């Protein structure tokens, strides 16, 4: 389990580096997203990235490779996250996870492109609402968008 967590952390760092590399490439060529796109790495932003074309073939190849590298590392993170969840449910340490409160947040906070269910829980205000936390509820794990309840 420890090695899975370490490998996922390394993949997270790789994804961060791939995003930074792409941003620097775009800035070097003075390419900025349209004003309608407020945040990076959203679905709209990724659609805009996919629509970019460059006048020089070499730049197009480099950009496609950067985009492909980012997609590969995100797929790797997804595979590792699935393996972590599988280990949490059925691995050697599964019994220690099952001893948690039935709806306690599992110690894995994941950014995800999936649209989450919205859940209001007291005491989780420190988690960003755009990040998913995997929650263990009565033997099943699902991604939720944790937000603090309104006072």
Write the layout of secondary structure elements.
Blueprint: H1 2-28, H2 43-51, H3 57-90, H4 94-98, E1 105-110, E2 117-120, E3 132-137, E4 140-147
Parallel strand pairs: 2-4
Antiparallel strand pairs: 1-3, 3-4
List the keywords.
151 residues; alpha+beta; 2 domains; 4-stranded mixed beta sheet; 4 helices; disordered C terminus
Could you estimate the helical fraction of the residues in percent? Answer: 40-55%
Class from helix and strand fractions: alpha+beta
Number of domains: 2
Report low-confidence residues grouped into runs of 5 or more: 101-132, 136-140, 145-151
Q: Give me the side-by-side strand order of the main sheet.
A: 1-3-4-2
Order of helices and strands: HHHHEEEE
Mean pLDDT: 76
User: Major β-sheet, in short?
Assistant: 4 strands, mixed
Q: Could you give the distance between the termini?
A: 38 Å
The portion of residues forming beta strands comes to 15-25%
Strand segment count: 4
Which geometry do the CA atoms define?
A: elongated
Which value, in Å, is the CA radius of gyration? 19 Å
| Count of individual helical segments | 4
Notes on the structure:
- With 151 residues, the chain is of the alpha+beta class.
- It has two domains: 2-90, no CATH class; 100-147, no CATH class.
- It has four helices and four strands, in the order H-H-H-H-E-E-E-E.
- A four-stranded mixed β-sheet has the order 1-3-4-2.
- Strand 3 and strand 4 form a beta hairpin.
- Helix 1 runs antiparallel to helix 3.
- It is elongated and about 55 Å long.
- Mean pLDDT is 76; it is low at 101-132, 136-140 and 145-151.
